[in-house]
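Lab notebook, bench 4. Still working through the backlog of constructs that have no structural model yet. Next entry is a single chain of 323 residues. Request: give me the structure tokens for it.
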Amino acid sequence: MNYKNPKISVVIPALDEEKFIEKCLFSILNQDFKDFELIVVNNNSTDNTAKIAKKFGARVIFEKNQGVGFARQRGFSEARGEIIATTDADVILPKNWLKVIFERFEKDKDLVGFGGLCNLYSGPFLVKIAARFFLLPIWLIDRIFTGGWTLMGANMAVRKSAFFKIGGFRIDFKMNEDTDLSQRLSKIGKVNFDPFFKIQTSGRRFTRGLISGMRDYFLNWIARVFFKKEGFVNEILVIREERKIFSINKGLVFSLSLILILVLSFLPWINIFSKNQKVALAKEKIYFTEKQIKQDLISLKKFLPPKLKIHRHTINEKNLFNI
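Model written out:
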């Protein structure tokens, strides 16, 4: 890492993230792009978050004012790179994350903001499916209503000069500080969004289900788009543990177990029914085959000499399939 004159500064706000931050920092240190500094903002953590960050060589900054707006603002203010990238402590980054960010800003000098989407590496199965296939339509709908791209704090980067020009983050925001920033950035420069530029984040925010996890974000989107207000909700639920997969829904586990028991119970009856059905089909085939042969013999008599007798052979189940 380069702490004197880095091309990129990476800022991570962290509050009691000892269970997640190690994977995040490991993914940062394994980036293809090496000219960067790593800043972890310790936002009043009471666990080993700061100790783990120092172990990975991060520059740890303490921010006493609680809230992600305060934490990101403090980290961005301390950044030495002209490009500032930010993510969350429960994120795992692809190896080319910083490389792509640097190339985008180098290629387009008018670019002031850039970001992408995310997938979930944990959480309820249906929520992971929803994140993979429905996040992009949601972002497209948001762009139609707002007129510009919205960037997520877990996967975004800004040009430092533009960031300070608009005054930075709203420090009083405890959620949606990234949405507000990207909308204000779009008024002074170009904000680009790449739906294929993705990171992996945890599904801990959806431990109570998809609807519960999205409710506050949706209410704030309604307030911002239709009522031109900052948001109905300004307090995000703090979740610092991953819900174990077998405790996701006890009712679901019970239902699946009951279905399995019923299927196993009915298997003998299914086999008996299958055998009876096969016998019935065989008898039906014998009947129609015998009937067809009778008709053929009657037709054949017209072409035979009068004195030739045709003996009808008995057709049964045993010799039917040899005909």
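Notes after review: The two ends are 84 Å apart (CA to CA). The mean pLDDT is 82. Flag for follow-up if needed.
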